[in-house]
């Protein structure tokens, strides 16, 4: 199993959730994060002081999936999150040794 | 006495009814004088009711008004301590005013009265509920004036926000009220030399706002910039708080300006109306200037403009008419916008919450323009007998100049002394951690 | 004049003391008339004190009251802009009222007075602090009425919240006050045809609340639903703000209702007491209806019910007694609950913050019931000589009907015109991003 | 009547002018009596204006004041429900007061009048806007007293916060006002036995604060500790709210204390001034005690001290002078600090928001010290003819003792009854989830 | 070493912390997240508009442990987090290449 | 590629960001978390009730880097985050199977 972690623009959350739903993925975990990257926050002049907004609000979406579905899901996320503008974000894929569903104790892909 | 007063008013009404619409307010002022002569002191319940609530309104301006306005503007890690400073100023100031502040400001200084009052009323000794000042109890006058003595040092917090030691804030409040506020209040309102010279300051443009704004700038410069100022963003952590605090300043300011008439009458009513018009105009003025020069109107601009308008109309409230108020508001809004942005940027001082940029600048604009818009030409009350617009303008400038010079020098000395005694500034580590946790072991929010 | 007034009252008191408990308020009204005839205009300091503070209280209702109430209800991304719109309405409206609004609403329109006033008092030219209206300065009357002209368009924001362009809001405010508020205020309070017909509207149920609520509905429909309405949750981002704003509306409403007596007397006191009772009853009414039909009582229901009660008692405040107020409150609470939930759901319009569901509906309930509970049978002041309950009810219905028809048509035309001029609605992208960042480059919170 | 009153006062002023500074307030009190005898009842517009706004100010103390103060102190998951409870108390209490509370508290109980009033004024039947009480309309007296009947049960919420069923809160409010507040109010203010004994309670130290604080302690003990109390942190979720709520309590308290004079005069003014001084002193007292014993001053300490000062000066407000107020404030601040920390810790009860620790303790301190500082020696009004300081102190102690005993017993019985009827406490699961979601299906914040 | 990531119901946090303490685990990192899963947020009618609360508040607990202790700790977390009702959450296990304690520079299991 | 996850004291964030910038690392994702560890929250007595503040505010910094740069970056983070006092925090290193830049669809180290 793999954990897909996507860091995306906040307003894309709904689109991604819908894209995943249409692939029959009905579980994910979402965290509000702050991102620092090529998409520089603009320089603002606030009351006479110039400064750069360095951290931009982003959304981190984590989805655990079975290894064979990684590619299709990855495609779906990228398609939904894409705007073509700088700051669209990244997707990371890591390996999951094990997944357990707490309610039932089930392990492995059945627990997803 | 109500009866005598009424008779005098009726007589006057009879006499002047025909010419009423074309004469200036001066006619009324004359009546007031005649009346005052005929009058022996009694308490008028209507005036007393208005001054009771005006006192409450000015306190509302400070807590929660100014406390919210300022706390919203700082970073979350300093929100509680900033608010706490405002409350602490209220506490310390109340005691100082009771102990000797009132007596020195409004007591009769005899031969030295041009400069300062005396200590005959220290600890408010011997003042009875039945003692009268004008048409209200003297205790009520003491109370109302106390709220002015509280808001003035509270405004200064905006200059040194996010970096002053709490103990220094307490000390500063006690010393500054005693050595700066009290004398200036005496000069303008307590029978001192500025009132003798004819300076017009209806509700404290000079005594309160210019004074506080200048002291804020001195403090900002002496204590130095906040760590990271100019590179890190220091945007308001809660614009909602700042807007709400600003709204309370606005509402409470009716007590400040219309209350300064010390009576519930036509002049108080006019003071309220012109306050509303100037404030609305200034808010639009700042916001529009911002919209045109930076592309977007902001809530922060709107509310800052409103405060600038409130400040600017303060010295003029009982003297100018609605049209004068409109112009004063627009001018104050635009000028303060420039001061709090371009000028501040050019000079590089860290007047963190714009005590100077808003209060001193709009205060100066207001004080000077009062000398102009008081003229009947602009619908105002009219200049005093034999005073030209130019000479009134110069008198106003004298008031402004004296206040600035004295406030700069005395504030600087006080700050230097405190720096030696307990130190002015928190450590860098405390600044990074935030004053809430570092100084008070508390957090504004525990969600 | 105080003296004359007192003598008249004393005489009346003597005559009527024996029968006092069984007679209606009409007796008192008669006395007032007698008194008024004997009176020449002077300012009463007590009444003036009350109207000064009432004006401040109505402003408190708007900023920060309504601003908090509405800002709490929207999503966090629109919180600051919603609050800012309320402030902007206050600013624009103040200028409009000063420039010509007051004159058109309360000036003497001569032959056309049934329809509209004139421009003789435009820019408040020639109005002196000593000019009297009733027992208070005319400038104070102008100020008090101004606050009514401000709150009315501010209420409308609830209909088009979270999606209107800021420039459109400014334009709308100026046009709507001029073309909708001013004429209706003139018809009911300025000597226009509705007052001649005998419509009872003590503090503005028709002029303010029905009018604003209807305009809000028109705006909601014309601008269309918010993106995601009906599928995405759009719950209040801060119920704390909404509750606090509601509380300030409640407290400030005492100035609105009891202030509408324009004097500090028994009728003002009764207006305050019935306001309290109706509000408490309506809050319980909505909450209990919700508890019974949906299983749980909510804070949002409680405060919405309170506002419904405040609205419903507004036209009745100086006319009904405590028992009438109790019934009016309960009915308004339950009916508004149904309107803001089931009816809204059935028709599917997106009256985002229930300008229509609460203000128009409770306003209509209140206006109609005023015709009934004014009767002495329910402890009210009593119907006018020769007017039956049925005919008064129909007169009330006339007032409601005229207001609805005029407000619908005029508001729709204004919105259409603005749409053509600058466009009504923000882009979809701006809506998704939120108005705070998209239109104002600010965020409500920076924690 | 104004005229007669004025003549009496003038005569007195003439007679006493020479000795004024050295005599006590008693002289004035004598004048008031003379005057009262001469007076037939008419409404004074000035006094009415002040009482109208005082009523609004006391409501402001509760909503949003106390609501914010308490809601800020609880955990975020209970913030909305705590606020909602305060609002619900206002609603239920208003209806109870209207239905029979006022009549039982202030009606004439005839032979039983030492104990309780009657039902002759139930549903405020037959009370007309023109009915007079002192110099204000009786309806206004009803309104003002209503706000006192509302704030008292609202304070009790602090004792049982974060764990009582909502239905139990509603029931408790109705029963407790009827069975505890109303009789005690009658005893002290309605002509009952405590007023006959000479208990001094200017604005409700005993009736409101001791009474509520004691009831809060009983409730805290009977309902038991919050789950996790003593091990988990239960710090205020928003100190900003608590500070702002505290500020509104402070401002509103001017209506509470100075309003209790029922007139806009010198005593009301003095009541306001001493309130300010005592509050400032108590805030500093608590904060300094904390600073010295725990190393850091906190905002929570400052505001808690302020509330303790407000409570302590309440019974004394119209009786003591500024110096007495200073001492009372300092003492109340320090003693309440000890009560809300060390004593509470020693006994281990969970008086969640310190209803007892602040209101009862500072209330007792204030009630007892009133008997001492009323003496002219400390600048007070002076003891009644023939009463020694010791005997006044004992009378004060009687008032305190009677209130405590009655409140403990009656509150306990009411709580027991409610426990049997609907149950007092929410389930453990509901407590863990938080009352907002569990009981009301709402969240305070949806960011 | 392994990283155990548990996504659980918020009110179970204290129980889990205690369960871990009794196993002598004294380190963990907690994040507030929003979960989307089989536990559908209920449909609410709010002021006339029907909508579904889709994201529910969850708590993410991360604990780094030595590989041999994974099983016992997993059991403890599952036991403490279990209510048997839908939405109890998941546990993910990933491999940790390295752990460093910043204060001392220690690496590996000693740094836990 | 590796994911470096550092859990550090909040006030060190700026220093770490600068340290990374000087290594030419211009991307990272930051989350506010609560930490539980050896650095016990102090025992407070709040209004008469004694309790321990158990969770302390921490910042989680995630940086995806190419495997060969892990060591130098690790050193830089540790140096910047170090105060020597308890509670300085931990760094975890996990393996990344894949990284995608959403904007361009680039994969692997080029996507960082
Ligand atoms: N090396 C990295 N490690 C972790 N997160 C990163 C890294 N680089 C970028 N990110 C995250 O991705 C977001 C978008 O990256 P950015 O460089 O701004 O634009 P783009 O995705 O178009 O290349 C950043 O705000 C940050 O949260
Ligand atoms: N595939 C997944 N990837 C990541 N997180 C998931 C996944 N499935 C579920 N979750 C998380 O676990 C939580 C509980 O899952 P849910 O399906 O509601 O119930 P259950 O745990 O009983 O199966 C979700 O709210 C979500 O945070
Ligand atoms: N085993 C662990 N798993 C996950 N996070 C941990 C672990 N141990 C510590 N942490 C995180 O590291 C932070 C610092 O750890 P702590 O033990 O307090 O001090 P030190 O880093 O000096 O050893 C904790 O607050 C917690 O967020």
The helix-strand sequence of chain B is: HHHHEEHHHHHHHHHHHH
Q: From the structure provided, what is the oligomeric state, counting identical versus distinct chains? A: heterohexamer
Largest sheet of chain B: 2 strands, antiparallel
Q: Domain count of chain B, please report it.
A: 2
Give the total of beta strands of chain A: 7
Contiguous helical run count of chain A: 2
Query: Can you give the helix content of chain A as a percent range?
Result: 10-25%
Strand ordering within the main sheet of chain B:
1-2
Structural class of chain A: alpha+beta
Arithmetic mean of pLDDT of chain B: 92
Mean pLDDT of chain A: 90
How would you sum up the major sheet of chain A? 4 strands, antiparallel
How many helices of chain B does DSSP assign? 16
Pick out the low-confidence regions of chain B.
Answer: 1-23
| Poorly predicted segments of chain A | none
What is the CATH top level name of the largest domain in chain B?
Answer: Mainly Alpha
How would you sum up this structure, described in words?
The complex is a heterohexamer, with three copies of chain A (112 residues) and three copies of chain B (447 residues). Chain A is built from two helices and seven strands. Chain A has 112 residues and is an alpha+beta fold. In chain A, the strands form two sheets. In chain A, strands 2-5-1-6 form a four-stranded antiparallel beta sheet, covered by helices on one side. In chain A, strands 3-4 form a two-stranded antiparallel sheet. In chain A, helix 1 (13-22) runs antiparallel to helix 2. Chain A is elongated. In chain B, strands 1-2 form a two-stranded antiparallel ribbon. The relative contact order of chain B is 0.14. Chain B contains 16 helices and two strands. The longest helix of chain B has 33 residues, at 389-421. By secondary structure, chain B is mainly α. At the C-D interface, helix 1, helix 3, helix 9, helix 10 and helix 11 of C face helix 3, helix 4, strand 2 and helix 5 of D. Strand 7 of chain A pairs antiparallel with strand 6 of chain E. Bound molecules: adenosine-5'-diphosphate (3 copies).
């Amino acid at each position: 199993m793999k954990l897909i972690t996507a860091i995306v623009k906040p307003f894309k959350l709904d689109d991604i959730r819908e894209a995943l739903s249409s692939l029959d993925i009905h579980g994910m975990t979402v965290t509000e994060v702050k991102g620092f990257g090529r998409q520089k926050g603009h320089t603002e002049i606030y009351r006479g002081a110039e400064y750069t907004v360095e951290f931009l609000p982003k959304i981190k979406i984590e989805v655990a999936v079975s290894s064979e579905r990684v590619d299709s899901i990855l495609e779906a996320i990228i398609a939904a999150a894409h705007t073509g503008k700088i700051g669209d974000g990244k997707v990371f894929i890591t390996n999951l040794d094990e997944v357990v569903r707490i309610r039932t104790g089930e392990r492995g892909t059945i627990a997803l | 006495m109500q009866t005598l007063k009424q008779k005098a008013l009726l007589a006057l009404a009879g006499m002047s009814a025909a010419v009423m619409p074309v004469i200036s307010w001066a006619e009324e002022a004359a009546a007031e004088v005649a009346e005052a002569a005929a009058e022996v002191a009694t308490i008028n319940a209507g005036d007393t009711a208005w001054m009771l609530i005006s006192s409450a309104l000015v306190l509302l301006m400070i807590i929660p008004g100014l406390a919210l306005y300022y706390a919203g503007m700082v970073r979350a890690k300093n929100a509680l301590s900033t608010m706490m400073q405002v409350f602490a100023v209220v506490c310390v100031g109340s005691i100082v005013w009771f102990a000797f502040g009132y007596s020195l400001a409004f007591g009769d200084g005899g031969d030295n009265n041009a400069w300062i009052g005396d200590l005959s009323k220290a600890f408010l000794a011997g003042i009875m509920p039945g003692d009268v000042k004008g048409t209200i109890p003297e205790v009520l006058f003491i109370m109302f004036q106390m709220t002015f003595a509280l808001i003035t040092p509270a405004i200064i917090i905006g200059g040194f926000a996010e970096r002053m030691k709490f103990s220094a804030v307490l000390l500063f409040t006690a010393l500054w009220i005693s050595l700066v506020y009290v004398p200036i209040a005496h000069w303008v309102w307590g029978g001192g030399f500025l009132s003798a010279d004819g300076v017009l300051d209806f509700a404290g443009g000079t005594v309160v706002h210019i004074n506080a704004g200048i002291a804020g700038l001195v403090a900002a410069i002496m204590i130095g910039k906040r760590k990271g100022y100019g590179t890190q963003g220091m945007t308001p952590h809660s614009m909602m708080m700042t807007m709400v605090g600003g709204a309370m300043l606005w509402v409470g300011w009716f007590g400040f300006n219309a209350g300064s008439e010390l009576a519930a009458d036509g002049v108080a009513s006019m003071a309220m109306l012109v306050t509303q018009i100037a404030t609305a105009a200034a808010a639009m003025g700042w916001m529009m200037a911002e919209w045109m020069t930076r592309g977007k109107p902001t809530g922060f601009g709107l509310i800052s403009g409103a405060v600038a308008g409130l400040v600017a109309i303060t010295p003029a409230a009982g003297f100018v008419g609605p049209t004068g108020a409109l112009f004063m508001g627009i001018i104050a809004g635009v000028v303060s916008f420039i001061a709090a942005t371009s000028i501040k940027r050019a000079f590089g001082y860290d007047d963190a919450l714009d005590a100077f940029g808003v209060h001193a600048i709009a205060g100066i604009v207001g004080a000077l323009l009062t000398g102009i818009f008081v003229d009947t030409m602009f619908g105002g009350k009219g200049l005093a007998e034999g005073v030209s617009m130019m000479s009134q303008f110069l008198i106003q400038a004298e008031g402004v100049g004296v206040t600035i010079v004295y406030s700069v020098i005395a504030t600087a000395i006080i700050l230097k002394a405190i720096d030696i005694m307990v130190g002015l500034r928190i450590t860098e580590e405390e600044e990074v951690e935030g004053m809430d946790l570092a100084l008070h072991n508390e957090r504004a929010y525990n969600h």
